[in-house]
Amino acid sequence: MNKITLGVLADTHIPDRARRMDRRILPIFEQARVQAILHAGDVIIPDILAALQEVAPVHAVRGNRDYWMLRHLPDHLRLNFNGTDLVLTHGHGPLLKYFQDRIYYILNGYELDRWEPYLRRLFPQARVIVFGHLHRPINHWVGGQMIFNPGSPHFPEGEAAVGTIGLLHLDSTGEVWGEIIPLD
Predict the structure, then answer these.
(1) Summary mean pLDDT of the chain
(2) Residues 6+ apart with CB under 8 A from 76
(3) For residues 140 and 69, what is the distance between their CA atoms, to the nearest angstrom?
(4) What are all long-range contacts of 18-21, with beta carbons under 8 Å and residues at least 24 apart?
(5) Which range in 90-104, 111-125, 169-183 is most confidently predicted, on average pLDDT?
(6) Residue 13 sits in a domain of what CATH number?
(7) Total domain count for the chain?
């Protein structure tokens, strides 16, 4: 069995919400021997991607806060690791949807049910959908698709009292499983 481990993070928000990347992130990825790192947006500055690149190749997408220095990043990437189709996206969608979601969130609070159907409709062929934006860790299966959000290492929201990152494991038999790693 050939297994691949991916490091996953999102919403690092440096320097707008944290001064620097949590010093525990790189050693966790190194210890897990990740073959690649996925960043699901809201990176803010290119230095973060360069630091991650020291550990493994990095695949990154543009978040709603990446409009200055990282606007060249794609809004989503379709990737394949070990025969498993994966989509990496931030999840905020077009500008109008982003503002509608912000208003809904302010008036009604957070509801995961607003995000999963949207992402599954956009990416029906993906076995794994990795996204960010919510700052909340999510690791579960819905209708044959893994929905995975590593949360935010620096600005957790919701029930997450501590920052989080993730690991995705994909083996050559098609088995996929994820881990949420708390930074406590």
Answers:
(1) 92
(2) 61, 87, 88, 89, 122, 123
(3) 33
(4) 18/153, 18/154, 18/155, 21/48, 21/51, 21/153, 21/154
(5) 169-183
(6) 3.60.21.10
(7) 1
The conformation of residue 120, written as its DSSP 8-state character, comes to H
Model confidence at 67: pLDDT above 90: no
18 vs 42, 48, 69, CA distance in Å?
Answer: 12, 12, 17
- Domain residues for the domain of 117 are 3-182
β-bridge partners, 168: 6, 178
Per residue in 128-183, pLDDT tens?
999 999 899 999 999 999 999 999 999 888 775 799 999 999 999 999 999 999 99
| Entry field: residues in the chain | 184
Q: How many CA atoms lie within 13 A of 75 on its CB side?
A: 10
